[in-house]
Specification:
The chain has about 475 residues and is of the alpha+beta class. It has 15 helices and 18 strands. The chain folds into four domains: about 90 residues, Uridine Diphospho-n-acetylenolpyruvylglucosamine Reductase, domain 2; about 120 residues, Uridine Diphospho-n-acetylenolpyruvylglucosamine Reductase, domain 3; about 110 residues, Alpha-Beta Plaits (2-Layer Sandwich); about 90 residues, Alpha-Beta Plaits. A seven-stranded antiparallel sheet has the order 15-12-14-13-17-18-16, sandwiched between helices. The chain has a five-stranded antiparallel sheet with strand order 5-6-10-8-9. Strands 1-2-4-3 form a four-stranded mixed sheet, with helices on both faces. Helix 13 runs antiparallel to helix 14. The longest helix is centred in the last third of the chain and has 21 residues. The mean pLDDT is about 95. Belongs to the FAD-binding oxidoreductase/transferase type 4 family. Homodimer.
């Protein structure tokens, strides 16, 4: 079939007006937040039901049409980029919360439900959905699960996969599977949920998910501490964890905070400057917890780990302190940052970060390095800002060499080249730094079982043929 025939046939599979071919739509739906690849999709489909998705996948198998899933398009690994004439399946119209069970504390959602929509629904019902990150207002649940998104509260609540009670998926063959039936205990062989979570749409498309909810946290309180040295991040973390259950432990460099402050919407937390800052969040459920927190703070100061600090006295102040961390990406965006999302076990973080900082600075002293991340779970975000007088193409070329240095260090520390944004196209060539050749071949074998014709998000994570 030629492209015109394919588009004509696709129009019969979805509702009227839900096949988009306008150049502006192709550009908008054919990419995510990465900038390395130009979007070139054939068409955009907006299905409404699982059955429509199934019909699309069966048609794609019969006619060898490549499909790319599209959620909120907030990814940073080009996992949702359609650069080779693929058909994009966008889940914007599958955005309904279908069922809520107060006794089980579960909610069944379509894949296009926006993260913030789920968070608000949980709150309206006196519960809490704890997976949270800066893109919660636009990211979609299907995309979150397809990359196993983490965010700012992993230290307490875990990753997206920890909150999935059940999934409905359309496999690459076009079969509809209902996985786990929302059961808490189900020891009946392989748990296929966890193959689709983190698979970036390469095995099939998630169309519905039953998500677990939990109780709302009480009196969330935030501390921001100025640290004397990078290694003090671990000293402070270990000290607090002995006495307090933290809901978040974030860090950011002084350079990162300077960019946020330059925007003028947030004030410095205290007068003293520090090379690094830690942001701690915990539930102040009693006066005793607050007293314990203050005693731990004083202990950290006495040990020389903390130069100064502030603790929130209200919900508004807690939110304002969070802005120091949450506004970093927004504040550096105009500088066309190179971003890398990497992880190691928590105990290796200071040495790991220092090695990367040194190797980049040694080779490219004109590059400004911005560090921040979820240091409490070993997830670091390396951001290098493009010099204003350097062409974007030259900058990205140099960053490819940076990738090699960074991932050599990742491999030496037995870390991951992607902590929470997936592999996509951006990190496909570096998968071997985290996964062995034998393991990658097992991954390819799984792909062949679920997607024998190779139509589901082809070229992402790895090439099926080698």
């Amino acid at each position: 079939m030629n492209p015109e025939q394919i588009i004509a046939a696709l129009k019969k599979l979805v509702d009227d007006g839900k096949v988009l071919t306008d150049p502006a739509d192709l550009d908008a739906y054919g990419k995510d937040w990465t900038k390395q690849y130009a979007p070139r999709p054939l068409a955009i489909l907006l299905p409404k039901t699982t059955e429509q998705v199934q019909a699309i996948v069966k048609f794609a198998n019969e006619n060898q049409v490549a499909l790319v899933p599209s959620g909120g398009r907030t990814g940073l690994s080009a996992g949702a980029v359609a650069a080779n004439g693929e058909v994009v399946v966008a889940f914007d119209n599958m955005n309904q919360i279908l069922d809520f069970n107060a006794s089980d504390r579960t909610v069944r959602c379509q894949a296009g439900v926006v993260t913030e929509q789920l968070q608000s629904f949980a709150e309206d019902n006196g519960l809490f959905y704890p997976v949270d990150f800066a893109s919660a207002g636009s990211s979609q649940l299907g995309g979150n699960l397809s990359t196993n998104a983490g965010g700012i509260k992993v230290i307490r609540y875990g990753m997206s996969r920890d909150w999935v009670a059940g999934l409905k998926v359309v496999t690459g063959k076009g079969d509809i599977l209902e996985l786990n039936l929302d059961l808490e205990k189900n020891n009946t062989g392989y748990d296929l949920r966890h193959l689709f979570i983190g698979a970036e749409g390469t095995l099939g498309f998630i169309t519905e998910a039953t998500m677990k909810l939990t109780r709302q946290p009480t009196n969330l309180t935030v501390m921001v501490l100025g640290l004397a040295d990078l290694t003090n991040t671990m000293d402070v973390l270990q000290t607090f964890l002995k006495n307090i259950d933290l809901t978040a432990y974030e860090f950011f460099s002084h350079q990162a905070m300077q960019h946020v402050l330059a925007h003028g919407q947030v004030q410095a937390p205290f007068a003293a400057e520090a090379p690094y800052y830690a942001l701690l969040e915990f539930e102040a459920v009693s006066d005793q917890v607050m007293e314990d927190a203050m005693a731990l703070f004083e202990q950290c100061v006495e040990n020389g780990w903390v130069l100064d600090g502030v603790i929130s006295q209200s919900e508004t102040q807690a939110n304002n302190l969070w802005q120091l961390r949450e506004r970093i990406s927004e504040s550096i965006a105009p500088r066309t940052p190179y971003k890398n999302d990497i992880s190691v076990v928590v105990s290796r973080v200071p040495e790991f970060l220092t090695e990367i900082d040194q190797v980049v600075t040694e080779h490219y002293p004109d590059f400004e390095i911005i560090w921040f991340g979820h240091i409490g779970d070993g997830n670091l975000h390396l951001n290098i800002l493009k010099p204003e007088d350097m062409a974007k193409e030259e900058f990205f070329d140099k960053c490819q060499q940076v990738n090699k240095w960074v991932f050599d260090i990742v491999q030496r520390h037995r870390g991951s080249v992607s902590a929470e944004h997936g592999v996509g196209l951006v990190k496909k060539d570096y998968l071997q730094y985290t996964r062995s050749p034998v393991e990658i071949e097992y991954l390819r074998g799984i792909k062949r079982v679920f997607d024998p014709n190779g139509i589901m998000n082809p070229g992402k994570i790895f090439d099926i043929g080698g």
